[in-house]
Amino acid sequence: MPTACRAATVITLAGEKAARGRAALEAPLRVEDNAVILAEDGVILGVEPFSAFRRRAAASFTFTDAGDVCLTPGLINAHCHLELSHTKGKCAGGKGFTLWLRSLVEVLRTRCATEETRAATAKALEDAVASGTAHIGDVGSRLPGMVSELAERLLAGLDRERGCRYPLTHFLELIGFTPPAPEAGIPEELRAGPWFLPASAALPPRRYADCALSGHSLYSTAPEALQAAHALCRRTGRIFSVHLAESLDEDECIRDGSGPLHALMAELLPAPTRAWGTSPAALAGKLGLLDPGTLAVHGVRLSSEDRLLLSRSGCSVCLCPRSNAFIASGRAWPTAPEADGILFCLGTDGLSSNTDVDMRKEAAAARDAYGLPARAVLRMATVNGAGALGRKDLGTLEAGKAAVVGVFHPDKVSFLP
Ligand SMILES: [Zn+2]
Predict the structure, then answer these.
(1) CATH class of residue range 3-72
(2) Within 218-259, where are the H helices?
(3) Span 55-66, mean pLDDT?
(4) Mean predicted confidence (pLDDT) in 345-360
(5) What is the distance of C-alpha 153 from the center of its chain?
(6) Cα(329) to centroid of ligand 1, in Å?
(7) Distance from residue 392's CA to the centre of ligand 1 (Å)
(8) Nearest CA among 10, 69, 6, 70 for reference residue 38
(9) Regarding beta strands 32-40 and 43-49, do their DSSP bridges make them parallel or antiparallel, or are they unpaired?
């Protein structure tokens, strides 16, 4: 039987495409008061005023009243590392990027019980879904197979009628300069290249359609690997993602081939990056990595020229304001006029640099950090995230889209226009 869910307020973003530029992000929102979302088999049939619904067809729907809440499209967390959930509270905050990364590497070196890792990941997934997240761009370099298994288990326990569908895009992350082990279980087309993924990265073949590729960064992944992964993503219509312009240390490492991050990389990798004499964003452009199918993550350290370059490329940038604040790596400037062509979305990043995976809190942090109205960050967290991850079934509440919603209590985080 089809379902009908009434709420005091529904923000559908119906008909909207991903918003680029401040004016589009801040455009007034259409708000439906006292409305119902009609759905069947997890797909939206329509959104209409409650009065019309009651007159027309109430008897043929299973009805739920969500009460005095605001329903929005399901939230899109465009960048997370679920496999790092067990590192929550264990990494160095407030001391800059290199010290944070060094502390993360140390935590990952100490053997962590598999059960602890699984339990922390399962909890993060549950928390994300429970807080209205419809989809996560999840970066995995070590345990995507485990994350995928937990996501399938969570999905099996959820009510499909609610519109829940597999909640992850697996960005298989390439780090370093050596090829993947043959036994890695990575599809052949994703394995051919100068990178590695360990055996534990294996994903079941039924999940290959949910795979995309991600380079860790310009300072930790071979340029040829980044280019090959990017080219493969273009050929196969997948999103290519890479951490980009996250910190001052990264700037120094790429530009001058020196500094604390370069020293750390020299300890960890056989061939740390050379001095490129340019900013990370400019290097990404030079390597041909920037286009509308690329999702760059962070974009904190961007000069005006870098912003123009990213704008003209049409790429997406995932902002992670709470992660940047935790690490003390700086603040992005999405409102700069020269950034107008960039598609900005939001991500929590992993729990190694955040306290939770609640996208409502990330959106509130973005609103405060960037001085944007709630409607702008709501778009970033919904329709823009769906655009950045190439998900046409998500991002708005309208006929044919997934019936999965974010729920906002007006007294806690006001997202009313
Ligand atoms: Zn990240």
Answers:
(1) mainly beta
(2) 223-236, 248-256
(3) 86
(4) 97
(5) 21
(6) 13
(7) 24
(8) 6
(9) antiparallel
Contacts of 242 (CB under 8 A, 6+ apart): 214, 215, 216, 217, 218, 221, 226, 284, 289, 294, 295, 296, 297
Report how far ligand 1's centroid is from the alpha carbon of 349 (Å).
Answer: 5
In whole angstroms, what is the distance from residue 119 CA to residue 262 CA? Answer: 34
Q: Taking all residues of the chain, what is their mean pLDDT, rounded to a whole number?
A: 89
d(CA 154, CA 251): 40
Q: How confident is the model at residue 178 (pLDDT cuts 50, 70, 90)?
A: low
- Bridge partners for 48 per DSSP: 36
CATH of 75-392, one of 3.30.70.1060, 3.20.20.140, 3.40.50.2300, 3.90.110.10: 3.20.20.140
Q: List the domain boundaries for the chain.
A: 3-72, 75-392
List the one residue out of 219, 213, 207 whose CA is nearest residue 193: 213
135 has which bridge partners? Answer: 76
Determine the pLDDT at residue 180.
47
Q: Residue 51's pLDDT band (boundaries 50, 70, 90)?
A: very high
pLDDT at position 192 is 47
CA of residue 207 relative to chain centroid, distance? 18
Over residues 354-389, the pLDDT tens digits come to 999 999 999 999 999 999 999 999 999 999 999 999
Ligand 1 centroid, distance to 185 Cα (angstroms) = 23
Residue ranges near ligand 1 (ion) with Cβ within 5 Å? 349
Mean pLDDT of 175-188: 54
Q: Is 35 left (phi over 0), alpha (psi -120 to 50) or beta?
A: beta
Backbone angles phi, psi at 265, to 5 degrees: -65, -35
Structure tokens given for 172: 């298989």
d(CA 121, CA 119): 5
DSSP state of 180: P
Cα 310 to ligand 1 centroid, rounded to whole Å: 19
